[in-house]
Design a protein that fits this description.
The protein has one domain. The chain is about 55% helix and about 0% strand. Helix 1 packs across helix 2 and helix 2 packs across helix 4.
């Protein structure tokens, strides 16, 4: 995806540059246990972005509390990703979890 990729109608509000999130995951996604070598980074990137953005927007609730909302977001915001929710779920969760590492000021709950 291009460096200026952004979900239509949404402005990143987490203070972490979108390219930093993409670069972080581009270096790591092939090491994740859910990685499928038939898929490309462009398939996974929207899932990482959704998870990261959700964490930035909702630091109070635990992941389990918003997973249903994230599934709905995935259906609307996945773009050209070939992942179905069952495949994207783990990447969304990892994007959520790693938001703390990309911005240490984030709440570590979840």
């Amino acid at each position: 995806m291009s460096t200026d990729y952004q979900i239509p109608g949404r402005v990143p509000e987490d203070g972490t540059p979108r390219q930093a999130v993409s670069d972080y995951w581009r270096d790591r996604y092939t090491s994740e246990p859910y990685y499928d070598n038939q898929l490309f980074f462009d398939d996974y990137e929207p899932a990482y972005q959704i998870g990261h953005t959700a964490r930035a927007q909702d630091m109070i609730r635990a992941y389990e509390e918003i997973e249903g909302e994230l599934e709905s977001r995935w259906a609307k915001e996945r773009g050209k990703s070939r992942l179905e929710w069952a495949q994207a779920r783990s990447a969304v969760r990892r994007g959520w979890e790693e938001a703390v590492n990309l911005d240490p000021q984030r709440n570590s709950r979840g």
